[in-house]
Design goal:
Layout: H1 4-15, H2 27-46, H3 50-67, H4 74-81, H5 84-89, H6 104-110, E1 114-116, E2 123-125, H7 127-153, H8 170-184, E3 191-196, E4 199-204, E5 207-212, H9 215-231, H10 240-251, E6 264-273, E7 276-285, E8 291-296
Antiparallel strand pairs: 1-2, 3-4, 4-5, 6-7, 7-8
Length: about 300
């Protein structure tokens, strides 16, 4: 038998929009709708109907809580009309690129790291850099395997009745942090690398200092940094943001995935949230699906 309580719950379930509430709630959309609700309540109060205004505000806030928005089509309206700078305040817009100390392409060309392709239509790794970069990747893999072997051979010091706490990823994490320390010039004891799915977030003393789209992107940067440190005189004198920009630029020219050696292709896609949408071009491995980079695509170049 269906009770009135069950009926109310069923009605609430039909009204609720989980794609716009809970963890999926969009803060910019919510702020816009609450502002409209407050404006409406204020208008009613100004015309001598404060009770009606208060009741209307309570009802509007209830609708926003249930559905995520009050005005139909809010996600499309905010996507179209909210300025990029406002969306960025809520972490919804495109991340603003940090100011570059140097022009990465010019720097790499002057260092003979990049050269023109034979048809002069594009740029590519110089042969010496491609070879050295590949050797550096082999060295990184060797470092990881040695760390793994050392971890396996380490004596277990826990008491016999204590649970074993060894993590299979500990060795890889230690090797990654050591590589991150060499990459950033920051003491390893201050660093941590947090893998969330395919994405790595780097922290120094708890403060986020960077991220990589995938392990392939991380390996590409670590290997390139080793080569540039050994072969380019002024590399270590550049600021960390400048080096980061140069390493990111180098990933645009990676043809074989550093993680699995699959082919890297360029593809255009649309990045969407409930209140923003923009075109990007990304480098993706066809074998392991790792993303090496993602760049905003100017609207004039986007495919309709």
């Amino acid at each position: 038998m269906t009770t009135s309580h069950d009926a109310r719950l069923g009605l609430l379930s039909r009204l609720r929009r989980p794609e716009y509430t809970g963890e999926n709630r969009c803060i910019p959309c919510t702020v816009v709708n609450v502002a409209l609700a407050l404006a409406g309540a204020g208008t009613l109060a100004a015309f001598g109907r404060p009770g009606l205004g208060a009741g209307g505000l309570a009802g509007a806030l209830g609708v926003i809580w249930l559905r995520g928005y009050l005005v139909p089509g809010t996600p499309h309206l905010t996507k179209r009309y909210l300025p990029e700078r406002v969306l960025r305040l809520f972490g919804k817009g495109r991340a603003a690129a940090p100011p570059a100390d140097i022009d990465a392409e010019s720097y790499l060309l002057s260092a003979d790291v990049l050269v023109e392709t034979p048809d002069e239509a594009d740029l590519a790794f110089a042969p010496w850099f491609a070879s050295a970069w590949s050797d550096a990747l082999d060295g990184i893999r060797l470092d990881a395997s040695v760390a793994d072997a050392d971890d396996a051979d380490a004596p277990i010091t826990e008491a016999a009745d204590a649970p074993t706490t060894h993590d299979a990823d500990d060795a890889g994490t230690a090797a990654d942090v050591a590589a991150l320390a060499a990459l950033t010039g920051i003491d390893a004891d201050s660093l941590s690398l947090d893998w969330r799915g395919e994405t790595a977030f780097a922290f120094a003393d708890g403060e986020r200092i960077g991220h990589w789209e995938s392990r392939a992107a991380f390996l590409a940067d670590v290997a390139a940094d080793r080569v540039l440190t050994d072969r380019v005189d002024d590399w270590t004198t550049l600021s960390l943001p400048a080096r980061s920009g140069v390493l990111g630029a180098l990933r645009l020219f990676v043809e074989d995935c550093p993680a699995c050696e699959g082919s890297v292709i360029l593809e255009e896609r649309v990045v969407e949230s409930c209140c923003s949408s923009y075109d990007v071009v990304a480098g993706r491995c066809t074998a392991c699906n790792a993303r090496l980079f993602e760049l905003d695509l100017p609207p004039s170049l986007a495919t309709e």
